[in-house]
Amino acid sequence: MKLYIAVGTAVLLVMAIFIIVFVAYYQQKQIRQQLILKEWQEKYRKGLLAATLQAQEHERRRIAQDLHDEIGTMLSVTKLSLNQLGRTVEHNDPGSTVLVQKTRSLLDETIANVRRISRDLVPTTLERFGLVSALEELAEKASNGEVHVELSCSDKMPTLLPQLDLTLFRIAQELINNAIKHANAENIIIDLHCQPNGILLSVIDDGRGFDLDEILKDKKRGLGLRNIESRLNVIDGHVTFDVEEGRGSRIHIQVKNLKPEVEVEVETV
User: Fold this and answer.
1) Where are the bilayer-spanning segments (predicted)?
2) Domain range for residue 80?
3) In sequence order, what DSSP letters do the residues of 61-73 get, joined into one string?
4) Do 104 and 38 share a structural domain?
5) What are phi and psi of 155, to 5 degrees?
6) Which listed residue, 87, 211, 215, 238, has the most CB atoms within 10 A of its CB?
7) Could you give the number of structural domains in the chain?
8) Helices marked H in 97-158
């Protein structure tokens, strides 16, 4: 009887151990499947974001080309026709000189605006000369009598992947635009520096700041900030907002995707 009890107990113990092992294995398998599913969902989300951003850039390029090739050309032809008409009108009616000159001035301003918009849509300097030169040009264009924008960067900057170049440029463009239009900043610093594991881009301003939580809660506002986060999600970047109402903002962008084998020397501002 004791032998039967011992054998039965052993069998029950083995079955219990088997059930425990099976349940643990099944749970681990489920966890692995959930992790794999989350990984695929994250890859799909990033791929969808990347495709969306790429489509936006393609649309920007198409619009810029249409502005340059069609609208710009038509305006230039119109200016030539106006010049010819102006000479005839001024000869027959000298009093119309002021009107012709005013029309010519408006036309010149329109042509300049079309060219500016076209260049803003497609940063040709970025494609030709890289991120540092593009940021220098951006700072120069944004500076005027009321706003001063300054670029500070490392003595040597590595050549980055084109996608990363474009992402950092668009983010800097967005942050400078926000600082000028919404924060009424007078001084803005673009700080671009190398780190041991990546690149740090900071945009610092002396504007009136903002409440980040309130901005992100409002679906009609904060679209630019959400676009920044979307761009960074595609390249596994990170943004830190050091902001509050009543003081200047410090926004830091950290990225890791580098091509460190090539370096370009630049002057430190």
Assistant:
1) 6-26
2) 1-122
3) HHHHHHIIIIIHH
4) yes
5) -60, -35
6) 215
7) 2
8) 97-121, 124-129, 131-142
- Assess whether 233 and 174 both reside in one domain: yes
Q: Is the pTM of this model over 0.85?
A: no
Question: pLDDT tens track of the chain, all 269 residues?
Answer: 666 677 777 778 888 888 888 888 888 887 887 788 777 767 766 677 667 767 777 777 778 777 777 777 788 888 888 777 777 776 666 666 777 778 888 888 888 888 778 777 777 888 888 889 999 999 998 888 889 999 998 777 777 888 888 889 999 998 998 898 888 899 999 999 887 778 899 999 998 888 888 877 776 677 778 888 888 888 888 899 998 888 889 999 998 855 544 344 444 33
CATH number for the domain harbouring residue 146: 3.30.565.10
Domain boundary among 77, 102, 122: 122
Which residue has 């091509």 as its token pair? 259
| Domain end position, chosen among 100, 122, 144 | 122
CB proximity list for 4: less than 8 A, separation 6 or greater: none
d(CA 160, CA 166): 10
